[in-house]
Inverse folding.
């Protein structure tokens, strides 16, 4: 007689009330992971899907083969981008709490991922982001006023009040309309990249997805299409450990890492310290060069940690220890880059404090300006008449009749 | 004038469009080298090369999702879902993505793309090769949904669909691919070569989206139909001798309300016919529109003839199919009311 089967539901190591513990997360030493040539055969770098590429060490030095790509000015710019995103997040989070908008999603702890990635792209390249890559906009020079007006759904909202806050769209800044449905944009990035190659263009695409959404079929379709057609696309997986309340093990299953998902498709896959601005930028540049040189897709897993809540609608203390983010072994991306710049002699505590104050006051100034154009709570909003526009290029008769019935 | 089957007319539409606009690309399962399981893309890869017409992995989600990205880039993809019954994995990409992209991005990104799919039964395809899912598209804001009933319209509507700047669902009644079908499955099939609507001009022309066609003028009752049911209705009219006006909707959404209302106000009676299941089918929308717009002209309740609310059966195909006998009964019932 056979023994009864047992059913498995993975659980995170620790839940609320327990002591945070990341001792089971293997962390590579900074500088120890090799940098292969961009035309490497995927089968020769299978180990890189399990290691973590890191540049900044504990002494805030940039070490190893992935270091040395950015100069002081570029690093200072990167620091400013991350600090700006953090200040922006803080103000918008507060604005939501004050009832000025319905919803917000912050980036705390993940600022390096989108800010550093953006600096590896060229004008015309297209990102297909999720809701947590606003660093692509900030580092890409998109006007913060437009971001805030979108969040407030006010009279200057570039999207006319049609989308939830933070689901931006900025074609001219290489930022595809964020859907709000998860994973759908991943295969679209591959399609966009295929089109660029079909037209013998030089632009590349970047897809973005979170650890949880890799379980969606869209993710697998994207990897199949990218692999089959050798699309010039970078397939980014931001593993911030948590999908709302669900730990990453539920989506990852028996696969050692998310990067390893790429291996079965014959796509080179790298894993990188997502809280290390220099490492993120170096790996992004490697993958972008592969795409640009017609070497095909690359999968990148950014190992990071979502310090804040998923959105303004959940409370993380209900599903993970309150102090878990303090125990996260890869530290804080802003602090790490700041310390590196100080170590390089390009920055100081005083200058950092001064920059923080300057950035905050400039963000507040933009916020004040945005609020002169309205908030979700007070208006003015895009008109009800606008609601009927843009469903089709030409408004069909039935919508015209409904607009008349609506009295607008 | 040259005569073509519906398959040849659809192929010709893609051929003409690909010649006129190098941004038109065609792909799907078995679509490239082999030319499609129904042969609608035969020869296109040879003529235009594999970067314009190619095989896709068996992933409807992937086909439509990639097409959304390509369309956002600036191409005009015309993709094939092998059977409408296989569309469901792509539904999220159609509903949440293609249909809403223009709206949610305030026109920064658009999805000028066509999703072609063979629809309907009558070929002993069982439940997975016979469905008519048009109501799942007509319910979605931002989609244009087309069902042609003959080769001339199929070519002109498909060219118009490819040239349209928004996503279009193009449902091809597979029972009409090779000839008009009036529902009498036990009789020999008439080829399109012997039917006047098989006359298809060479080169470029369009049939406007959103415009219905009156297939038969009459004064006794209005029949609203599309696809295969246009011919079934014609047979029923012939067999009952009732002087019905038959309207072929061609485009379901945006619907041609003016043509519908003018006809029903004239006849005072309305029978709606579709092959899809009855409940929440497109006929329910049509029935509501007729009631809202023609109530004081109606001499009888509006009657629907549709597929039963069961999965599409295999052995019982002709018990399921709303053939001329059922349509004829409905015509008589509204005349007697």
């Amino acid at each position: 007689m056979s023994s009864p089967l047992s059913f498995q539901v993975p659980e995170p190591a620790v839940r609320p009330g327990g002591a945070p513990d990341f001792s089971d997360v293997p962390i590579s030493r900074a500088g120890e992971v090799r940098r292969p040539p961009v035309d490497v055969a995927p089968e020769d770098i299978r180990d890189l899907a399990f290691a973590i590429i890191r540049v900044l060490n504990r002494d805030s030095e940039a070490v190893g083969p992935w270091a040395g790509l950015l100069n002081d000015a570029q690093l200072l710019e990167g620091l400013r981008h991350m600090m700006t995103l953090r200040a922006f997040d803080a103000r918008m989070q507060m604005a939501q709490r004050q009832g000025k908008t319905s919803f917000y999603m912050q980036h705390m702890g993940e600022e390096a991922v989108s800010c550093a990635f953006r600096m590896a792209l060229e004008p015309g390249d297209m990102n297909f982001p999720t809701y947590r890559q606003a660093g692509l906009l900030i580092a890409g020079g998109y006007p913060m006023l437009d971001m805030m007006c979108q969040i407030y759904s006010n009279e200057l909202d570039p999207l006319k009040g049609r989308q939830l806050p933070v689901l931006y769209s900025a074609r001219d800044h290489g930022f595809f309309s964020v859907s709000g449905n998860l994973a759908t944009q991943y295969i679209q990035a591959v399609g966009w990249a295929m089109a660029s190659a079909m037209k013998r263009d030089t632009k590349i695409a970047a897809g973005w997805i979170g650890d949880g959404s890799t379980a969606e079929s869209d993710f697998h379709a994207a990897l199949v299409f990218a692999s089959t057609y050798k699309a010039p696309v970078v397939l980014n997986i931001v593993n911030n450990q948590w999908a709302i309340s669900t730990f990453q093990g539920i989506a990852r299953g028996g696969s050692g890492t998310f990067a390893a998902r790429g291996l079965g498709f014959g796509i080179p896959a790298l894993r990188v310290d997502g809280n290390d601005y220099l490492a993120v930028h170096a790996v992004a540049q490697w993958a972008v060069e592969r795409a640009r040189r017609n070497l095909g897709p690359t999968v990148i897993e950014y190992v990071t940690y979502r310090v804040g809540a998923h959105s303004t609608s959940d409370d993380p203390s209900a599903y993970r220890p309150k102090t878990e983010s303090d125990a996260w072994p890869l530290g804080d991306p802003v602090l790490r880059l700041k310390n590196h710049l100080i170590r390089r002699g390009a920055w100081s505590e005083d200058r950092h404090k001064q920059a923080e104050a300057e950035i905050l006051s400039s963000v507040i100034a933009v916020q004040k300006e945005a609020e002169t154009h309205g908030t979700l709570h007070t208006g003015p909003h895009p008109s009800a008449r606008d609601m009927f526009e843009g469903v089709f290029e030409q408004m069909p008769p039935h919508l015209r009749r409904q607009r008349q019935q609506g009295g607008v | 004038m040259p005569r073509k089957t519906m398959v040849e007319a659809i192929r010709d539409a893609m051929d003409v469009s690909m010649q006129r606009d190098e941004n038109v690309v065609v792909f799907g399962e078995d679509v490239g080298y082999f030319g499609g399981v129904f042969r609608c893309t035969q020869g296109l890869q040879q003529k235009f090369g594999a970067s314009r017409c190619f095989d896709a992995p068996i992933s409807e989600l992937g086909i439509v999702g990639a097409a959304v990205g390509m369309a956002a880039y600036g191409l005009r993809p015309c993709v094939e879902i092998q059977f409408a019954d296989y569309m469901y994995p792509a539904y999220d990409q159609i509903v949440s993505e293609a249909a809403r992209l223009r709206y949610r991005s305030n026109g920064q990104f658009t999805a000028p793309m066509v999703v072609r799919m063979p629809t309907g039964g009558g070929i002993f395809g069982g439940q997975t090769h016979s469905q008519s899912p048009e109501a799942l598209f007509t319910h979605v804001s931002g989609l244009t949904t087309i069902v042609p009933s003959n080769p001339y319209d199929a070519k002109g509507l498909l060219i118009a669909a490819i040239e349209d700047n928004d996503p279009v669902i193009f449902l091809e009644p597979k029972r009409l691919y090779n000839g008009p079908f009036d529902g009498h499955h036990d009789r020999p099939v008439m080829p399109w070569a012997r039917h006047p609507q098989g006359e298809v001009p060479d080169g470029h022309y369009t049939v406007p989206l959103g415009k219905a066609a009156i297939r038969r003028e009459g004064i006794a009752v209005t029949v609203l139909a599309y696809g295969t049911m246009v011919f079934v209705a014609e047979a029923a009219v012939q067999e009952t001798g009732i002087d019905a006006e038959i309207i072929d909707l061609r485009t379901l959404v945006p619907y041609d309300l003016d043509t519908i209302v003018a006809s029903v106000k004239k006849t005072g009676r309305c029978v709606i016919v579709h092959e899809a299941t009855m409940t929440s089918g497109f006929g329910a929308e049509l029935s509501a529109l007729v009631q809202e717009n023609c109530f004081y002209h109606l001499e009888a309740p509006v009657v629907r003839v549709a597929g039963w609310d069961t999965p599409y059966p295999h052995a019982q195909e002709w018990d399921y199919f709303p053939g001329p006998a059922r349509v004829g009964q409905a015509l008589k019932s509204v005349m007697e009311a």
Observations:
- The mean pLDDT of chain A is 97.
